[in-house]
Write a structure and sequence with these properties.
GO terms for molecular function: DNA binding. This is Helix-turn-helix transcriptional regulator. By secondary structure, this protein is mostly helical. It has a single domain, classed as 434 Repressor (Amino-terminal Domain) (Orthogonal Bundle). About 55% of the residues lie in helices and about 10% in strands. The longest helix has 11 residues, at about 45-55.
C-alpha cells in the first residue's frame, strides 16, 4: 500500500504510549495497533481528528503517501 502510517513516530515525538493515546482518544489499543502497523484498511475522520488532537499534530504528520514506482 502506498499510504504509510507514522503513528509510532508521533508517539515517540510526543513521549506518549499507545495505552495513553488509547485512553485519550477512546479507541481500543488493538485498533490503534492495527493502525500503527499499517494493517488498517480505513480510518474514520473522527478517529483521525481525535488522534491529531491528542498528539497535537496534523493528519500529514501521521499519514504519508509513498511513491512506490509500481504502476
Amino acid at each position: 500500500m502506498a499510504i504509510k502510517v507514522n503513528l509510532d513516530l508521533m508517539l515517540v515525538k510526543r513521549d506518549m504510549s499507545l495505552t495513553e493515546l488509547s485512553e485519550k482518544v477512546g479507541v481500543t489499543i488493538s485498533n490503534l495497533s492495527i493502525l500503527k502497523t499499517g494493517k488498517a484498511k480505513a480510518v474514520r475522520f473522527s478517529t483521525l481528528n481525535a488522534i491529531c488532537e491528542a498528539l497535537d499534530c496534523q493528519p500529514g504528520d501521521i499519514l504519508e503517501y509513498e511513491i512506490t514506482g509500481e504502476e
